[in-house]
Amino acid sequence: MSFNNKKTKLSGQNTEYFPGISKIEYRPDAPLDDTLVFRHYDAQQLVLGKTMQDWLRFSVCYWHSFRGVGLDPFGSGTIVRPWDDGSDSLETAKQRLRAAFEFFSKLGVKYWTFHDRDIAPEGNTLASTNANLDIIADLAQELMQKHQVKLLWATSNLFANPRYMLGASTSSDAKVAAYAGSQVKKCMEIAKKLGAENMVFWGGREGYNSLVNTDVKQELDHMAAFFRMVVVYKQKIGFEGQLLIEPKPKEPTRHQYDYDAQTVMSFLSQYELGQHFKLNIEPNHTTLAGHCYEHDVVMASIFGKLGSIDANTGSPDLGWDTDQFPMDIKSAASIMKIIIEQGGLAPGGLNFDAKVRRDSTDLRDLFIGHVAAMDTFARGLKIAAKMVEDGLLKQAVEARYSSWAVGLGAKMAAGEATLEDCEKLIHEEGHPTPESANQEHFEAIVNNYM
Ligand code: XUL
Ligand code: CO
């Protein structure tokens, strides 16, 4: 079946786009093969004094769930939705949006996210593109109000259109960067209108494929200059959302400038932009960078820079960004432990930057992916809360560092010691005795909580 030729079957304001699926309920005793219920996610249940809903702040992303058709480099789309004729018309854009809000509402999520180009078609001129966005933003505002769903973040797609093949703010062509600037300006205005709590910048093609033809220093300087314009406009229009940069090491470019959390944080420090930005961490990007699943979440959090999370996972045996629904309870617990330790994620949230597999073509697969991922994180939250409450792991880790709390250790930690002090101590006390890190003991404790 050709996706593009498909006629729209559904239309109208009162159409039900997901007939047969009602609001997903919390039913911990449902049969184990009923995957359209929550067994752990109970939105109003209190965990460490806060509701699950407030800890988890779930969000559905528009691009995968309402624009994804299962394209891959080897074949065309496999996913056909009854409300979507695959065209770029405004009518279809409106219909998708209505279907999406029915989905958010039946799922019980309070947030959504989008790229400007996901929600409204690009016109022939910037003016007509912006006019399309205005029309769709009006409808979005109405639906957000009706369904009580808020905007976690908006972002500009600065990578799909061929004009961005050399990057956006880091393009060798200044006019391309100017186009990106005009696009971000409009996106921020829409974000403000819709009350977005954050705005994300993922540098889709900000990077290089070859050093032979690239002036890396100029490109980084240009990226910083671009972000300065963003900050100035944010202040000018009074947009109050948190600005977030999303690291990714590669794909689509061979080397992306925002490689990982530490790279982005040092870029922000280098260009004195630190106070204006936090990070949106996507674990599938973290593993692509060669780190363990929670590494970037930890790195961002310890420096007060964890703004939001694109909750997904990759296949560790593959080397690319598969954007799968996060289904691993232990990984979710590791993330939730960090979120609890930093006191929550607001104004950020857990945004499912995840897509159903291209061979998961049923409409209900879209629900099941989200329901199961929400339950995975709810379970992770409960496990992490227990770990934090008990304090066993924390105490055991603290015990490993106890020598830094006394004597010369404390003096060094406070930055008050000298190399002469170090030498004196070793002369007096001799060699340090190696101490076990007891990794297996710690791993066993973690397992005991699962
Ligand atoms: C790409 C990715 C994006 C960003 C938003 O890998 O994660 O969808 O989250 O542009
Ligand atoms: Co993402």
TrEMBL record:
Supply the InterPro entries for this chain: Xyl_isomerase-like_sf, Xylose_isom_bac, Xylose_isomerase
Q: Which segments does the entry list as coiled coil? A: none
UniProt-recorded Gene Ontology molecular function terms: metal ion binding; xylose isomerase activity
Sorted UniProt keywords: Carbohydrate metabolism, Isomerase, Metal-binding, Xylose metabolism
| UniProt key word Isomerase | yes
Q: Which GO terms describe its biological process?
A: D-xylose metabolic process
Look up keyword Metal-binding and say if it applies: yes
Q: Which reaction does it catalyse?
A: alpha-D-xylose = alpha-D-xylulofuranose
E.C. number(s) listed in UniProt: 5.3.1.5
Q: What class of enzyme is it?
A: isomerase
Give the record's family classification.
Belongs to the xylose isomerase family.
PANTHER family in the record, alphabetically?
XYLOSE ISOMERASE (PTHR48306)
Protein name according to UniProt: Xylose isomerase
Organism, as annotated: Hirondellea gigas
